[in-house]
Automatic annotation (TrEMBL), chain A:
The keyword Lipid metabolism does not apply. PANTHER family: NADH-QUINONE OXIDOREDUCTASE SUBUNIT F. Keywords: 4Fe-4S, Iron, Iron-sulfur, Metal-binding. Pfam families: Complex1_51K, NADH_4Fe-4S, SLBB. Gene3D superfamilies: 3.10.20.600, NADH-ubiquinone oxidoreductase 51kDa subunit (3.40.50.11540), NADH-ubiquinone oxidoreductase 51kDa subunit, iron-sulphur binding domain (1.20.1440.230). InterPro entries: NADH-UbQ_OxRdtase_51kDa_CS, Nuo51_FMN-bd, Nuo51_FMN-bd_sf, Nuop51_4Fe4S-bd, Nuop51_4Fe4S-bd_sf, Soluble_ligand-bd. Residues 205-250 form the NADH-ubiquinone oxidoreductase 51kDa subunit iron-sulphur binding domain. Its cofactor is FMN. This is NADH-quinone oxidoreductase subunit F. One of its GO terms (molecular function) is NADH dehydrogenase (ubiquinone) activity. Belongs to the complex I 51 kDa subunit family.
TrEMBL record, chain B:
The keyword Transport does not apply. This is NADH-quinone oxidoreductase. Gene3D superfamilies: 3.10.20.740, 3.30.200.210, 3.40.50.740. It comes from Komagataeibacter diospyri. One of its GO terms (cellular component) is membrane. It comes from the Bacteria. GO terms for biological process: ATP synthesis coupled electron transport.
Length: 304, 911
């Protein structure tokens, strides 16, 4: 677990402690002869530790850089031993599947995919939050019913359906079903299912700059395009947003989106993920970029 | 072999390699950074991007990293594809985002891999228009300079330093574009191979600090193939010279020995050549004063001395075969001394005998890397033969390679193989009296006294082959240990036993060879390697001669009138009383040496000899490889090669006094070697160690300067603006200038430096190799004098095991057993005249078992008197043993040495 998540970590320890007290964890669980334990490792907080092989490397106490495959973690993972890496979200489904059977679980989904998904919405909505819903719930329903719709006075302009590393969708995509296939068809990715909303009174370039700042910071520094390309992107966006952008900067942004966006060019998926909002944003907000460069300022910042 | 298509051209390629290697071997200019032939692939830099097509109909293809993609049958790739080119150019541009572009003042400039690769990608405009990130540099000690802003974060340095060489004080810090490669804090890089960062780093981050003080542009230096003189391993080097001074030493690839890596003693030990201790002119002692005299005076003085009576010659294990042999030719076998004590000589000759009759293999360093079980018996190879120690460190990776083979992961997939092998049991057993640097990778590091280690060794041999004599009264622990080690060795396909002369114990040498011989009965590949003390110890052992004790007897009997000592500091072999007695008993001593050793003060005549960079000659390494080094510097007269001095002496004697009268007529090195071959047939192949002086390539001599060497007339312009004829050496096929032949097909022994079109850094070596990481295009470097093959005989005759098993070691209460504490820096003679190595030599301390440390400083009563030394506890050191820095406290230490140990009168302070 990320080192900064103190509260979550304390709660987890507490819950595991309770389980252990009940005899549900540890040696010879409930006299079954089966032993099992959970160890919570809170490591230095790096986004890249979410990449399964970087996570293993970090667990070994080394720099959190991703590994090349093969060997896949299933055959040569933690300290070279076979390892299974799963999200907690995935593991949480197991008790229910075991209790109610796979059919029941699959039937929970509304579309092609089975089960439930934790969806979330952040941005200028009335009730930002996260909810476990049947997978395939339409985006509009999540935003309007669960997140309570936009805060009065704000219009939805675009959104990142699956978190920071997914491509922008505009307001016309609200009826997309939030399952893997449908979101992909709409031109983005389901990702984490945590939608980020861009409203009409926030500068899209400011938003992208904020995202790229994050991605540049969180690059592990292993491969060249990501390590040195993302900070360049960040500087370009800084310049444009601050009113010192130049026409050639758009070529540079486009070049980075192209060069870093395709899979296989960087060592892991961090840089392609970082390029998803940029590449889609360059298209969707072309007029905003042009306005920033022409007016030598952020129209929205000075307007607001 | 298989065929792959590179840019429409079908190329025959080895299987099992990656596409980067395949492209380079096919002659393509594909840029790369993070891949290194010795370190494998990790896919960090993304510079080697190419297009791979799934079949003849695939027109789109996809970008892959050549270094991470294995060669497979019918692979179709393009290096020339516009998208791939564009991406590679972008990589350079990204690397340059924070790079200072300070080539004109950068010490890497001119042999910079980054420069080469930048040009290769064709990338010119730098469009990044924001502020660059800067780093603070660190002081990394006397060997390596640090300029972090030039870093392109290829991670080679840490992979070499930590993963390959086992260092832990250099690391990658921080993340994103702020990654930093250095130490946690300023301070000396401790690893014995830190100097290799200079060559491993593809940019100017790590550069050669001693070279920096006499820096000269890389392309303005003369180069010559050379051999390291700082231990008996015989690593191959390149020496670079400018203005007739030696400037630096670089690695020279020898596929069997050092490959891509030199130890720091070898790289930085050359400072003795330019040290103030160098002798520049002949010196005569007149009226108790040493005065510089012309060469004719010196030789006439010698003629007068020689008229007084018999001459005895003392040779040296650090002098060339040619020099030692010329002395032999002068004085004859009755008067030729090897310059070693009887004990030293017996040990060296024993090593030669044991290697000669070893029924198994005599592995090269490279072969040792693939040994799958290693036993180190009583030798701290990391200190006595550092490069060999590094090869043993690599051997523990064998298990992970086998796992990788099983998992179908190519062996060059470095990170993956290391992940798979993370928990692999190592098969290295280190049995030594004191801790060694190999302990951390050893399955077992066991401490015992030399005699007990020998006993264990004999017991292991007996476990393997019952025909070997048993050891009685072993403790149950030792018996179990012997059984365990014997089984590990017997289970191996390529077991290896390493021992050596460090502790002056013939029993250790015997025990090691008994084990290896016992193994060889079932496993012909069973290897034996024995470490010798000096760069020509083996050559001298094959010549033989009198011991120093015999010379002492002759001197006492008044049978020596003149003693000619060549390149030997006797005070490192004989205790001061003996040296004094010798000096008193011999009327005249003639010292022929390059460095003013203590005895020079007492000589009637001192003659200045050329150091290894200033002449050519042949050395025989501990594994019997005869290797030639070549002249790079043309010293000021009368400095000349040792054999030429001996010849000059001979010319002033009555020819009837010479043992081999041809001596006076030798014109060049080839003449000396021809005569040597006649006198010592076992050494005859040494003639073929390298092509002779008459070798020509395309009808031309070989050039020793780069094609763009500059300033030939400018450099002397304060004297004369006319072009001077460049100096010439009769001993080598080299021209001393930029005129002559050069190319990747030149003989491996004669490569004066690496350069190929588009490749100006050391990585141009790829072009000189037949296969990358394999043999050179033309021949091996040097020639083994002893057969290296495993035993071909299906039914070998029984091995004649010796039965000289020592009694168990018993600690005494009245005296301690003094063992030499051999150090990487401090123990070897010549490197200790080199300022950066001197700076790294730790102050002498006395190592004791923790419970014997009763005060901060103690007095050790050695043969030459009491020595007050600070003491340090040595974990695991057996009771009753004291570790005394070799040659630093008492210059000469007799084996075995028992001494009294007292508390220092001033008690506990110090430590
Ligand atoms: S490292 Fe190479 S490219 Fe960089 S400044 Fe030095 S010579 Fe130039
Ligand atoms: S210091 Fe040199 S070897 Fe190390 S990462 Fe930087 S460029 Fe590469
Ligand atoms: S191991 Fe020996 S021969 Fe090799 S570089 Fe070091 S000192 Fe020289
Ligand atoms: S050389 Fe291939 S990625 Fe670095």
């Amino acid at each position: 677990m990320r080192g900064e998540y103190h509260l979550a970590c304390a709660r987890l320890h507490h819950a595991i402690g309770e389980a252990r007290q009940q005899g549900w964890l540890g040696k010879n669980i409930l006299g079954s002869g089966f032993s099992f334990d959970i160890h919570v490792h809170s490591s230095a907080g790096r986004y890249i530790c979410g990449e399964e092989t970087a996570l293993l490397t970090a667990l070994e106490g080394r720099r959190a850089t991703p590994r090349s495959k093969p060997p896949f973690p299933q055959t040569g993972g933690l300290w070279g031993a076979p390892s299974v890496v799963n999200n907690v979200e995935t593991l949480c489904n197991l008790p229910h599947i075991i209790t109610n059977g796979p059919e029941w679980f699959a039937d929970l989904g509304l579309g092609e995919d089975g089960g439930t998904k934790i969806y979330g919405v952040s941005g200028r909505v009335t009730r930002p939050g996260a909810w476990e819903l049947p997978i395939g719930t339409p985006l509009r329903q999540i935003i309007e019913d669960h997140a309570g719709g936009m805060i009065p006075g704000y219009q939805l302009r675009a959104l990142l359906p699956g978190g920071a590393s997914t491509a922008f969708l505009d307001g016309t995509a609200l009826d997309v079903a939030m399952d893997y296939g449908s979101v992909e068809k709409a031109g983005s990715r389901l990702g984490t299912g945590m939608a980020i909303i861009l409203d009409d009174r926030t500068c899209p370039i400011g938003m992208i700059r904020n995202l790229e700042h994050f991605f540049a910071q969180e690059s592990c520094g292993w491969c060249t395009p990501c390590r040195d390309g993302l900070p360049w992107v960040e500087r370009l966006l800084d310049a444009i947003e601050d009113g010192t952008g130049q026409d050639e900067d758009m070529d540079q942004l486009g070049r980075h989106a192209r060069m870093l966006g395709a899979p296989g060019r960087t060592f892991c998926a961090h840089a392609p993920g970082a390029m998803a909002p940029l590449a889609s944003g360059l298209k969707l907000f072309a007029a905003d970029f042009a306005a920033h460069i022409q007016q030598r300022r952020c129209p929205q910042q000075s307007g607001a | 072999m298989t065929s792959i298509r590179i840019d429409g051209r079908d190329c025959l390629t080895r299987t099992g390699i990656n596409l980067l290697q395949a492209c380079l071997e096919a002659g393509a200019n594909l840029p790369y950074f993070c891949w290194h032939p010795e370190l494998g692939s990790v896919g960090a830099c993304r510079q080697c991007a190419i297009k791979q097509f799934s079949g003849p109909d695939d027109t789109k293809g996809r970008i892959v990293m050549a270094c991470m993609t294995p060669v497979s049958e019918n692979t179709i790739i393009s290096t020339d594809d516009p998208e791939a080119r564009d991406f590679r150019a972008s990589i350079i541009e990204w690397m340059m985002v924070n790079h200072p572009h300070d080539c004109p003042v950068c010490e890497e400039g001119g042999e910079c891999h980054l420069q080469d690769m930048t040009v290769m990608t064709g990338h010119n405009p730098r469009r990044y228009r924001f502020t660059k990130r800067t780093h603070r540099n660190q002081d990394l000690g006397p060997f390596v300079k640090h300029e972090m802003n030039r870093c392109i974060a290829c991670y080679r340095c840490v992979r070499f330093y930590r993963d390959y060489a086992g260092g832990d004080d250099l690391a990658a810090f921080a993340s994103h574009d702020n990654v930093y490669f250095g130490r946690a804090a300023d301070g000396t890089l401790e690893n014995a191979f830190s100097g290799n960062l200079v060559e491993i780093c593809p940019t100017g981050v790590f550069t050669d600090k001693p070279f920096s003080t006499t820096y000269t542009r890389k392309w303005d230096m003369r180069g010559a193939p050379s051999i390291c003189v700082h231990c008996a391993v015989g690593c191959n080097t390149i020496v670079n010279a400018r203005e007739e001074t030696l400037r630096r030493v670089l690695n020279r690839y020898n596929t069997d020995i050092n490959r891509y890596v030199l130890c720091d003693r070898g790289r930085f030990g050359h400072g003795f050549v330019n040290a103030p201790t160098r002798i520049g002119t002949p010196l005569r002692t007149i009226g108790g004063q040493q005065v510089s005299v012309p060469i004719t005076d010196a030789l006439q003085a010698f003629a007068r001395m020689a008229a007084d009576g018999p001459i005895v010659g003392i040779a040296s294990a650090r002098a060339t075969l040619e020099t030692c042999f010329s002395l032999y030719a002068l004085v004859g076998p009755q008067h030729f001394c090897t310059g070693q004590t009887r004990h030293e000589q017996e040990c060296v000759e024993l090593v030669h005998a044991l290697l000669t009759r070893h029924p198994g293999a005599l592995p090269t360093l490279h072969e040792m890397e693939s040994a799958d079980a290693v036993l180190v018996l009583g030798e701290d190879a990391c200190a006595t033969a550092p490069r060999l120690g590094l090869s043993l460190r690599q051997s523990v990776r064998q298990a992970s390679f086998h796992m990788a083979d099983g998992a179908k992961v190519p062996r060059w997939m470095d990170a993956a193989v290391r992940t798979l092998g993370a928990e692999c049991p190592s098969t290295l057993h280190v049995l030594t009296p004191a801790p060694t640097n190999l302990d951390s990778v050893a399955a077992e590091a066991f401490r015992a006294a030399p005699d007990d280690i020998a006993r264990l060794g004999f017991a292991i041999a007996h476990e393997i082959d019952p025909a070997a004599p048993p050891v009685t009264d072993l403790t149950p622990d030792d018996a179990a240990r012997a059984t365990r080690i014997a089984h590990t060795l017997m289970a191996a396909r390529k077991p290896l036993v390493v021992s050596g002369m460090q502790y002056g114990s013939p029993a250790l040498l015997q025990a090691a060879s008994s084990i290896a011989a016992a193994l060889a009965r079932a496993t012909p590949e069973a290897g034996l390697s024995l470490v010798l003390p000096e760069c020509n110890s083996m050559g001298l052992a094959m010549m033989g001669g009198l011991s120093l004790e015999t010379v002492m007897e002759q001197a006492r009997a008044g049978a020596i009138s003149t003693l000619v000592i060549v390149e030997n500091d006797l005070t490192r072999h004989l205790p001061p009383a003996d040296v004094a007695e010798l000096v008193a008993a011999v009327p005249d001593i003639v010292m022929i040496d390059h460095t003013a050793t203590p005895l020079c003060q007492q000589a009637s005549l001192v003659l200045p000899v050329a150091a290894f960079s200033e002449c050519s000659g042949t050395l025989v390494s501990q594994d019997s490889r005869a290797q030639r080094f070549f002249q790079a510097v043309f010293p000021t007269a009368p400095i000349q090669a040792g054999w030429r001095w001996v010849q000059a002496l001979a010319q002033h004697l009555d020819p009837s006094m010479l043992h081999i009268s041809g001596l006076t007529g030798w014109r060049d090195l080839d003449d000396v070697l021809a005569a040597l071959a006649v006198a010592f047939p076992p050494l005859a192949p040494a003639v073929m160690a390298a092509p002779g002086a008459d070798y020509r390539m395309n009808g031309q001599k070989l050039r020793s300067q780069t094609y763009r060497a500059s300033g030939r007339t400018v450099i002397r312009s304060f004297v004369n603006v006319h072009d001077q004829p460049p100096p010439g050496s009769p001993d080598t096929p080299f021209s001393s200038s930029m005129e002559g032949a050069y190319g990747p097909d030149m003989p491996a022994t004669l490569v004066p430096g690496y350069q190929a079109p588009a490749w100006n850094s050391v990585q141009a070596l790829n072009r000189f190799q037949h296969e990358i990481g394999g043999d050179m295009r033309d021949g091996a470097s040097g020639l083994r004098l002893l057969s290296r093959a495993g035993n071909q005989n299906a039914d070998p005759p029984p091995y004649a095991y010796v039965n000289d098993i020592p009694a168990p070691y018993a600690a005494r209460t009245d005296t301690v057993l003094v063992l030499p504490d051999t150090r990487l820096f401090g123990s070897e003679e010549l490197s200790m005249f080199s300022p950066p190595v001197m700076a790294r030599a730790p102050a002498p301390t006395l190592g004791l078992p923790a419970d014997m440390v009763t005060s901060g400083r103690m007095v050790l009563h050695l043969e030459d008197g009491p020595h007050v030394l600070p003491v340090k506890p040595v974990p695991g050191l057996p009771a009753g043993i004291a570790l005394c820095p070799a040659h630093m406290v008492a210059r000469a230490l007799r084996f075995p040495c028992m001494a009294r140990l007292d508390r220092a009168p001033d008690g506990g302070e110090g430590s």
